[in-house]
Amino acid sequence: MAAGTRGAGEKRTVAFSRDQANVFFHVLTACNLRCRHCYIDPAQHGDQTLAADTVGRWLQLFAGPGKSPNLVLLGGEPTLHPDLSGIIRRARSLGYASVTVDTNGYLFHDILDRVGPEEVDFFSFSLDGASAGVNDAIRGEGCYRRCTEGIRRAVKKGFGVSVIFTVSSINRHELAAMAPLLENLGVERFFIQVIGLRGASARDAQSDSLQVSRDQWLETVPSVAADIAARGITVSYPRVFLKEDEAFACAGQVADNYFVFPNGRVYRCPLCEDFALHSLEIADGRLVQRPPINEKDLFALRIPEGCVMNRLVQPGNLSYRPDGRPAWRIACCLLKEEIFAGDVLK
Ligand code: SF4
Ligand code: SF4
């Protein structure tokens, strides 16, 4: 294998890197759906739709000479933004290395006709079931049909298409059935996420029952991921549980991720987004550090359970031995396993 290539089916843990920044930009928080596990909270994230020129100025704060981050455009539903195509072109002109649009599949404002595959690297569709029954119980009536139609249209137009599946106790049994569906739809990449106790999930009266146990996760996700990768689809999923001999690292300290919200809050950790713990904010058009106490102070703490924010907001996924030591450590939620499907690194 030449340098820079990976063998098909090879599994690897994607190490954190400061070499490549990632900007996750919520251009609005409005959405046409009301998914059961939505993490958007207008009280924390704002309810405004940012004007396209404001988004352009904010994008400039993270790009520039020597800096070409990856951009993920999010909402709410980002295609509800009337000038998403202009925002995508602005990001390109600023030198963003890649542009991905995360969508629920409704693809408002004819977005597939207003941008081209040379401008958007991936449209990433959220689908939480291999059948309408399971998906729509989580995401809303009619959503499965609209989302799969949207995927087919995007593939037909030549866009790179990925799918995001959030695993919970409601849909875990349908993860394996995603393999033939993804293959049939022509999806290139598949992202498996774990449901967190955040946003709507945290407010859900049955939130505990939505969680997937460690045993359920380990017995389902790695094997299904391998099956899907064997069909030519690159799969990534969060590591969640660290092995005994593995070092813990907090992306807030060793990686370069920015989670930007319409109210100007900028987080370095997604698990902090339910709280006013953001370490940065955009004020008067500048990116400024916030004073303590904020998420950065938490990143610096070292605890035997691994991730500090996990310990604070979703301790239900921890377990302790009789001597009080944790039975396992929780990895940073941003640490991913990836099974590469192709022959060469794209
Ligand atoms: S589509 Fe996304 S933003 Fe909209 S309700 Fe569902 S999870 Fe929330
Ligand atoms: S999820 Fe945990 S380990 Fe990862 S950035 Fe947040 S606090 Fe750090």
Explain what this protein looks like in three dimensions.
The chain has 346 residues and is of the alpha/beta class. The chain has a single domain, classed as Aldolase class I (TIM Barrel, Alpha-Beta Barrel), CATH 3.20.20. It has 13 helices and 15 strands. The chain has helices spanning 42-45, 52-60, 84-93, 111-114, 132-139, 143-156, 178-185, 199-203, 207-210, 214-230, 251-254, 295-299, 308-313; strands at 11-14, 22-26, 70-74, 98-103, 122-126, 161-167, 189-194, 234-238, 241-242, 257-260, 265-267, 280-283, 286-289, 329-330, 336-339. The strands form two sheets. The protein has a 13-stranded mixed beta sheet with strand order 1-15-8-7-6-5-4-3-2-10-11-12-13. A two-stranded antiparallel ribbon has the order 9-14. Strand 12 and strand 13 (286-289) form a beta hairpin. Helix 2 (52-60) runs parallel beside helix 3 (84-93). The radius of gyration is 19 Å and the shape is globular. Residues 1-5 have low confidence and may be disordered. Bound molecules: iron/sulfur cluster (2 copies). Residues 250-252, 269, 271, 299, 307-310, 332-334 line the site of one iron/sulfur cluster. One iron/sulfur cluster binds next to helix 11 and helix 13.
Explain briefly what this protein structure is.
The protein has 346 residues and is α/β, with parallel strands linked by helices. It has 13 helices and 15 strands.
How do the helices and strands line up, and which of them pair or pack?
Layout: E1 11-14, E2 22-26, H1 42-45, H2 52-60, E3 70-74, H3 84-93, E4 98-103, H4 111-114, E5 122-126, H5 132-139, H6 143-156, E6 161-167, H7 178-185, E7 189-194, H8 199-203, H9 207-210, H10 214-230, E8 234-238, E9 241-242, H11 251-254, E10 257-260, E11 265-267, E12 280-283, E13 286-289, H12 295-299, H13 308-313, E14 329-330, E15 336-339
Parallel strand pairs: 2-3, 2-10, 3-4, 4-5, 5-6, 6-7, 7-8
Antiparallel strand pairs: 1-15, 8-15, 9-14, 10-11, 11-12, 12-13
The protein binds iron/sulfur cluster (SF4) (2 copies).
